[in-house]
Amino acid sequence: xxxxxxxxxxxxxxxxxxxxxxxxxxxxxxxxxxxxxxxxxxxxxxxxxxxxxxxxxxxxxxxxxxxxxxxxxxxxxxxxxxxxxxxxxxxxxxxxxxxxxxxxxxxxxxxxxxxxxxxxxxxxxxxxxxxxxxxxxxxxxxxxxxxxxxxxxxxxxxxxxxxxxxxxxxxxxxxxxxxxxxxxxxxxxxxxxxxxxxxxxxxxxxxxxxxxxxxxxxxxxxxxxxxxxxxxxxxxxxxxxxxxxxxxxxxxxxxxxxxxxxxxxxxxxxxxxxxxxxxx
Length: 280
Prior knowledge:
Blueprint: E1 5-11, E2 14-21, E3 27-31, H1 32-38, E4 40-44, E5 51-54, H2 58-91, H3 96-122, H4 149-170, H5 178-208, H6 220-241, H7 254-275
Antiparallel strand pairs: 1-2, 2-3, 3-4, 4-5
Helix pairs in contact: 2-3, 2-7, 3-4, 4-5, 5-6, 6-7
């Protein structure tokens, strides 16, 4: 019987990397993000360089490609629409209804992208607890896996898009008082931004295998996370600047609010475009 040594890495309760050492020095490495986004295991024979080999079957790889394409396109289009909406608010006629319509359309794409990202995790190839090929699970529209950091990150992201939907729907309401604007429109906006930031941090935990963010400049996945997290920061800056002062009835800074949304949205579009290449 062959002797297998296993090394486990991660942060807190989350396991993000497993390394199996086989007789003869051969190692097999499972990483959470690589497995669920690319469907691969890293294999190193003896002291030689690691090579990426498909660890999932054709069905699993096909699912990942399709869901990745849907998520990528959704974030590119959603980010572009948010950028257009903020540009209209900053440079257009000032009609809030037009901007609200554009934002709402962009929000639909963001929600679609968030759900597609969650489906990638739910239907991702799984390791069997041994250095063997990945196993493709039966298709599912939902699973509850809070101890899977990839699932938790995408579930929080999807929750953020749904909270943004409340903010976007409430923005169509007319005749609101300042207190109602801050409660119905501004507060959900801030909550959605917080959820986006938490999702991004969890994504860093997954790829860095620790609670503190790291720099992995040669990793495409890291760049996608970093660009999206920058977008989340800019969204938060925009949200804070969009608070309506009760004393004057005006925003803290409308220009910062619009530019924060525009630049943050472009970050998500860039992240979506980069995601096209992080596929099996």
